[in-house]
Amino acid sequence: MKNVKTLALAATAVAAMSGNAFAADRSDLHGSDYKWMQFNAMYSIGEKPENPAAGDQHDYLEMEFGGRSGIFDLYGYVDVFNLANQSSSNGDKNPGSGKSKLFMKFAPRVSIDALTGKDLSFGPVQEVYFSTLFNWDGNVGSGVNSTFWGVGADVNVPWLGKTGMNLYGYYDMNAKEWNGYQFSANWFKPFYFFDNKSFLSFQGYIDYQFGADEAYFPNKDNVVMKGLSSNGGNIFFGLYWHSDRYALGYGLKGFKDVYLLTDDGATGLESTGWSHYLSATYKF
Q1: Is the bond leading into 49 cis (omega within 30 degrees of zero)?
Q2: Which N-terminal stretch is annotated as signal sequence (predicted)?
Q3: CA 206 – CA 84 distance, rounded (Å)
Q4: Closest CA to 210 of 187, 231, 185, 234
Q5: Each residue's pLDDT tens digit, 145-182
Q6: DSSP string of 185-246, one letter each residue
């Protein structure tokens, strides 16, 4: 399963493209519209949280998409795990494991600049948004089912360039309660171009939750859960080769009490550590 980024996002071959929305064109609301979609064949090693006794590897197919239309900026993806439904000694999505076969992230933002017709840029801030994020897996009433609501901006960061940043309040749809906040950022930086116009990029994201209640966190049955942290998250660093139609990449992802699960054995899961991702992409 992907981890909250939201970051997720996350996590992912070209997640930062959602942060690369153009500044609002107030003379032509749809003058900066664009859209994109791609399929990523992925393999994950060591993704957290993991049960050390069950394995930590899986393949998955990811449909990733995004774009801009008027006041709306959108990024999202849908993952399908263990495509052949195989069992392996190191697989964490084996048949019969009880794990969801699906995960979805949906992150629509509304440009306040475009909505009001005013240029709200200042300093390195290029455009301001009302930001939302939805994380869903295939389990009803359990698993990852959460929403995030807040404000965001496209910020010009030295060397990285335009970087999407968002600050959210976190609402757990299983517990039916607000519980802390999340800061997210994503980037996409081409840094070396070949003669055939393909290029290398440094891309990634960070999702960090904080201010959560670790003492009392009821689930749908009002049972106090143990092993929860007040803060945690993940960060992804990716090195990718891109052409007009294809991409190949490697990503290194770090976790610290991801999903606010502590790494002290209270849940039986490892929620802190590093993982590796391999991807091959076809762009439509």
Answers
A1: yes
A2: 1-23
A3: 31
A4: 231
A5: 899 999 999 999 999 999 999 999 999 998 889 999 99
A6: EEEEEEEEE-TTS-EEEEEEEEEEEES--SS--B-TT-PBP-SB-S-EEEEEEEEEEE-SSE
